[in-house]
Amino acid sequence: MKKKKKAAGLFFAPFGMCFILFWLVPFVYGCYLSVCNMSLTRGNQGFSGLENYIQIFSGDTVYAEAFFRGLKNILIFVVASVPLLVIVSLILALIVEHLPAKIKGIYRTIYFMSYAVSVTAVSAVFLWLFNGNGGYINNVLVHMGIIDAPISWLEAQPFAWIVLVIATVWWTVGYNMMLFINGLNSIDSALFEAVAVDGGGFFSRLRYIILPGIKHVMTYVVLMTIIASFNMYGQSALITKGGPLNSTKSLIMEINDVIFTNNNLGEGSAMAILMGVVVMLFAMCQNWLSREKKEIKEVNGS
Description:
Elements: H1 2-34, E1 36-39, E2 43-47, H2 51-57, H3 62-97, H4 101-116, H5 119-129, H6 136-143, H7 159-185, H8 189-197, H9 202-213, H10 215-230, H11 234-240, H12 251-261, H13 265-301
């Protein structure tokens, strides 16, 4: 028994050390910075208590404006991208699952490859595609006579959001497609046979079997996409640079500007802690839903 405990401790040690060094210590230090009047150039000017948080929630400071503008932009991005991502991922999963077994694996790999590409490379490609001056999309649309003059995709709304959403969906659709495929494979095939016997078509299978059967996967995809949206930096910084007029500036970019442009480490840390709390709430929601699903399975199994 002692040997087993020792072996378990050795296996856990690397994870425990990484958790302490790369999560717990930065989080605790961030909490400390958030209650200090500190800048990168002047250093720590003393303890400020909750003043940094009060500045954020006061509503009439530049930090409050930056924080809530970042939150609003994240909300817009989530509302625009999540439904599209779920629909496209599910459609691709259904198409791939109905392909012949010989080529099914090939198409899974092809679609998943987009997720293996770095966000920098993805952003560079979409920056080239939607460039207002000589971009590929503009050239095609002008040549086909659909538009008379090039569109400034990245310098006007809602075009900037459209480009960001399309880029993000293209980048992540392969990963989410694989999640939906796993969900589809977990559905009992006898249910499909029962619907076929009753004369039900594709839409009957979709409504009464597929959607209820992958509801847990759909919930996971939605929550994880929301959590990932809070960490969105590369697409906004590289494709739209937060513009036009800060309308696509993510919360991470706002925090970065407060710390490195406005030289306010304390206020930026407070914003980061608040963002971390919001993300943690979504993560707790995901864990609760997963645990509830497991308990339901155990009850049904017994």
